[in-house]
Amino acid sequence: MSVRPTPDRAKRPRRGRFRLPAAALLALVVLWFGGLVWFAHSIPDEVADAESKTDAIVVLTGGSLRVQSGLALLAAGKAKKLFVSGVYHSTDVTALLHVARQSPEHVACCIVLGHEADNTLGNAIETAQWMRQEGFRSLRLVTASYHMPRSLLEFSRAMPDVQIIAHPVFPENVKQERWWAWPGTASLILGEYDKYLLALARPLLASGSEAEP
Asked: What domains are there in the chain, each with its CATH number?
């Protein structure tokens, strides 16, 4: 004689099916927030090494403060050449100096513009090619502080044998202290964090696609 399962017994297995996905989702959320805290803490709030000389100074476009800082470093003799990556095709050195509203004329000969990159990965690839052509082994990387973690990740991958010194600049509109209390800064850092995660996962995604038949 068979006994039919009661309604309560029939529902139990269904509940169990959703326990693992819910737990996994919660773990991912906790992991994401923990990573966000780490990422925000990793954003530099000062230039740790402002004195060391390198073969090159590399500026990633995206703000006039970056170019001005790179030009000032070149004028101070901190490197042999300045490479500006991600410049618009119509921009030349003269136009760059005009936009920066500074820069001594005598350093114009030591400035090289890269026109091919349109994102951070492209900046790293473009710079790596130029560094190999010049035979350079060290660079000072100039970009915004919030952009520095992702830039260092991409540049260290593209140039594992090159010494990279971080030289962050600090835009006035980015409030790093208590960043979560400033909507504009919070949105900027959250977006940059998501881009960092995508950059971090890119080799895994690429290897997975290559493994597919």
From this structure: 56-169 (3.40.50.620)
